[in-house]
TrEMBL record:
GO cellular component, one term: endomembrane system
Membrane topology label: Multi-pass membrane protein
Subcellular location, principal: membrane
Keyword Lipoprotein: no
Domain of life: Bacteria
One protein family per Pfam: Rnf-Nqr
Designated name of the protein: Rnf-Nqr domain containing protein
Length: 182
């Protein structure tokens, strides 16, 4: 269980600082979080299928990275299109570029396929990573909103206060490290 918490937190904090450049509206934030969660979960499942159905029988495990990149690119371009078809009012403009730069999907897919973990564990880690990313988007959006109206010195406005908030959140989340024994 400890691994699940660490995957959730690290994916949430690291990817948020890399992916989110401008403040998003509430609906854009929810759509982005949902699309990232789906991309990570489906990417991990597809990676497992790819490794066990194609790479393992041919004994070419070294090509996993080069075969996972097109799979994740397909997901990054296909998921916003499917979300736009499913809910036309949802803002998906610019979403494929953000999903393409999501390192959590590739990192988790490579890690899970090399570990030999079971399907339910892999699906759970994928969903938790996506959920953690979504949670981090919401927390940082709240941090931005609160810091916009708070009495903060001008030197700390913007990225400095966000990095301080990320550091405090990382310290708080690291307290969960020994909470769940294996």
């Amino acid at each position: 269980m400890n691994d699940y918490i660490l995957v959730l937190i690290s994916a949430a904090l690291i990817n948020h600082l890399c992916l989110l450049r401008q403040p998003l509206s509430g609906l854009q934030l929810q759509v982005h979080g949902l699309a990232c969660a789906l991309c990570i979960a489906l990417g991990v499942i597809g990676a497992q299928l790819l490794v066990h159905a194609v790479l393992a029988p041919l004994h070419i495990h070294d090509l996993a990275l080069f075969l996972l990149l097109p799979w994740l690119a397909l997901l990054a371009w296909g998921l916003p299109w499917l979300l736009a078809k499913w809910r036309p009012a949802w803002p998906v403009v610019g979403l494929p570029a953000l999903l393409l730069s999501n390192a959590a999907a590739l990192g988790l897919a490579l890690q899970q396929t090399s570990d030999g973990t079971t399907w339910p564990t892999m699906l759970l880690k994928g969903l938790l990573t996506g959920g953690g990313f979504w949670l981090a988007l919401m927390v940082f959006a709240d941090l931005r909103q609160r810091s916009a109206h708070a009495d903060i010195p001008n030197v700390l406005r913007g990225l400095p206060i966000e990095l301080i908030g990320a550091g405090v959140m990382a310290m708080a989340f690291s307290g969960f490290n020994g909470m769940f024994g294996q």
